[in-house]
Amino acid sequence: MPLARRFALYLDLIRWNRPAGWLLLLWPTLGALWFAADGWPGWHLVVVFTLGTFLMRSAGCCVNDVADREFDRHVKRTAQRPVTSGAMSVKEALGLGAVLALLSFGLVLTTNRTTVLWSFAALAITLIYPFAKRFVSIPQAVLGVAFSFGIPMAFAAAQSTVPAFAWWLLAGNLFWVLAYDTEYAMVDRDDDLKIGMKTSAITFGRFDVAAVMASYAIFLAVWIWAGASRSLGALFYVGIAVAAAQAFWHWRLIHDRTRDGCFKAFRENHWLGFAVFVGIVAGYAIR
Q1: C-alpha neighbours within 13 Å on the C-beta side of residue 218
Q2: How far is the C-alpha of 34 from the C-alpha of 119, rounded, in Å?
Q3: Tens digit of pLDDT for each residue in 125-150?
Q4: Phi, psi of 196, deg, nearest 5
Q5: Can you tell me the distance from the alpha carbon of 30 to that of 222, in angstroms, rounded to the nearest whole number?
Q6: Three-state DSSP class for 275?
């Protein structure tokens, strides 16, 4: 296969043309980094966590597509993924994932021993999640931990410890992940029922929309508390208000449970996280 075609497959595997996935991880991680440093954390940590988030999300895509390749054949939206379609071998996909994870680990090695130790827990959760969908009724909760683990790592890097405050942020962020990944699961609910996949959209049933909105509310409440405890000013609350307005817009998108509406809500969620992050940065800037 020509090199250009092979490289295009690699980009497709890591969702290069769909940056929403890694941005969903980035904003809470950077927000936590600002909290951990009590303001500007310095370029070193910003670069480490930005690149590390992208690399680990990409590695996670490799593992996920290998784990789900038999299921993905039966879902129209995922049937043409490189591993599922047979365009790339399992060995090659896992090899790429390993390289990306090692590059991310190289970044972690520039921080401190505490962060290095926590990175092994982050890797374990990344590897566990793809298989949780077979055994856990709400696998989105496992994803919530995986997608929120940049938060304790940010505190480890900035403070060489992980205080209770970090775990509260993780718990709050878990509910945001539950909200947007339930929207994502609502898109594929019919296909998932046919193939026996477990998802929160199936588990919540007719209460799916209510569960999504309650999860948004818990996420925002926890992060409002976090900002208030650090005496962040009016601009922080402006960011929260913008995020809340987006959550209401998502309710408008998903309340009829159409595939297009649910997928759009999921795809636009990174803007909600961005609003919260900008509020944190702005709050520290004027504090």
Answers
A1: 18
A2: 19
A3: 888 887 777 778 888 888 889 989 99
A4: 80, 20
A5: 16
A6: helix
